[in-house]
Backbone:
Protein backbone atom coordinates (compact mmCIF):
# COMPACT_ATOMS: atom_id res chain seq x y z
CA UNK A 1 0.00 0.00 0.00
CA UNK A 2 1.57 3.28 -1.08
CA UNK A 3 -0.77 5.80 0.53
CA UNK A 4 0.27 8.50 2.95
CA UNK A 5 -2.96 10.30 3.74
CA UNK A 6 -5.13 8.83 6.44
CA UNK A 7 -8.30 9.03 4.34
CA UNK A 8 -6.72 7.12 1.45
CA UNK A 9 -5.31 4.47 3.77
CA UNK A 10 -8.74 3.98 5.34
CA UNK A 11 -10.37 3.78 1.89
CA UNK A 12 -7.82 1.19 0.78
CA UNK A 13 -8.41 -0.94 3.87
CA UNK A 14 -12.18 -0.65 3.38
CA UNK A 15 -11.92 -1.79 -0.25
CA UNK A 16 -9.78 -4.76 0.78
CA UNK A 17 -12.33 -5.70 3.44
CA UNK A 18 -15.25 -5.45 1.00
CA UNK A 19 -13.41 -7.54 -1.60
CA UNK A 20 -12.61 -10.19 1.01
CA UNK A 21 -16.22 -10.27 2.18
CA UNK A 22 -17.53 -10.69 -1.36
CA UNK A 23 -15.01 -13.48 -2.03
CA UNK A 24 -15.97 -15.37 1.14
CA UNK A 25 -19.70 -14.99 0.47
CA UNK A 26 -19.28 -16.23 -3.10
CA UNK A 27 -17.31 -19.22 -1.82
CA UNK A 28 -19.98 -19.97 0.81
CA UNK A 29 -22.86 -19.77 -1.68
CA UNK A 30 -21.07 -21.92 -4.25
CA UNK A 31 -20.40 -24.55 -1.57
CA UNK A 32 -23.99 -24.52 -0.27
CA UNK A 33 -25.39 -24.89 -3.78
CA UNK A 34 -22.99 -27.71 -4.62
CA UNK A 35 -21.71 -25.87 -7.70
CA UNK A 36 -18.26 -27.38 -8.35
CA UNK A 37 -16.39 -24.19 -9.28
CA UNK A 38 -13.99 -22.02 -7.33
CA UNK A 39 -14.65 -18.34 -6.58
CA UNK A 40 -11.83 -17.45 -8.99
CA UNK A 41 -13.51 -19.45 -11.77
CA UNK A 42 -16.84 -17.81 -10.95
CA UNK A 43 -15.20 -14.40 -11.44
CA UNK A 44 -13.80 -15.53 -14.80
CA UNK A 45 -17.20 -16.82 -15.88
CA UNK A 46 -18.96 -13.60 -14.94
CA UNK A 47 -16.57 -11.65 -17.19
CA UNK A 48 -17.72 -13.64 -20.22
CA UNK A 49 -21.47 -13.53 -19.53
CA UNK A 50 -23.27 -10.89 -21.59
CA UNK A 51 -26.76 -9.44 -21.55
CA UNK A 52 -28.46 -7.16 -24.07
CA UNK A 53 -31.03 -4.53 -23.15
CA UNK A 54 -33.15 -3.27 -26.01
CA UNK A 55 -36.47 -1.70 -26.89
CA UNK A 56 -38.56 -2.50 -29.93
CA UNK A 57 -39.81 0.49 -32.00
CA UNK A 58 -43.50 0.18 -31.05
CA UNK A 59 -42.99 -1.14 -27.52
CA UNK A 60 -42.34 1.31 -24.66
CA UNK A 61 -40.95 -1.46 -22.44
CA UNK A 62 -37.24 -2.30 -22.37
CA UNK A 63 -36.40 -5.98 -22.78
CA UNK A 64 -33.40 -7.91 -21.51
CA UNK A 65 -31.88 -10.93 -23.20
CA UNK A 66 -29.04 -13.07 -21.88
CA UNK A 67 -26.75 -14.30 -24.59
CA UNK A 68 -26.07 -18.02 -24.84
CA UNK A 69 -24.15 -19.49 -21.91
CA UNK A 70 -22.38 -22.80 -21.52
CA UNK A 71 -23.39 -25.23 -18.75
CA UNK A 72 -20.85 -23.89 -16.26
CA UNK A 73 -21.99 -20.30 -16.79
CA UNK A 74 -25.64 -21.36 -16.52
CA UNK A 75 -25.02 -23.08 -13.16
CA UNK A 76 -23.34 -19.94 -11.82
CA UNK A 77 -26.10 -17.69 -13.19
CA UNK A 78 -28.82 -19.89 -11.63
CA UNK A 79 -27.05 -19.59 -8.29
CA UNK A 80 -27.18 -15.80 -8.46
CA UNK A 81 -30.83 -15.58 -9.42
Residues:
Amino acid sequence: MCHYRRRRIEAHVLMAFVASTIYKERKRRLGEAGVPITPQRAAELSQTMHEMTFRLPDDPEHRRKLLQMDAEQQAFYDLLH
Notes: The first strand starts at residue 51 and ends at 55. The chain has one domain: 6-80.
